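Usage

Read records sequentially. Each one opens with the input sequence:
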Amino acid sequence: MKKFNENYVLLEEMEKDSYFPDFLVEEVRGTLRPVIRLLEGGERDTKVIQEKLDEAVRGINDLQEAFEENDSDIETVARECIGAAVIYILAWFDIPIDIEEAIRERDW
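and closes with the structure output:
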């Protein structure tokens, strides 16, 4: 079973941008980690993987209010950063899910 690239920093652009509170960036990372764990466990069924991605994206959706309460927002930089992280995760594990499908549940 393949392990995720330990040198890749999930959401590095958001982490470096003071507009995004560190604790919320970490919460967004936390929504993506179960996807990574599933893939590290060897899951290859794209339907199962998509369900886990849907859960992750809904979890990110649920954080929008917390971002707003902290004078932040899931805006262009965040959207692109999250999308890039999902693209990287899927590519790392060679999972053939299109990014638009992967993040289809987003409302950001």
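Summary fields computed downstream for this record:
- The CA atoms of residues 11 and 82 lie 6 Å apart.
- The chain has six helices and no strands.
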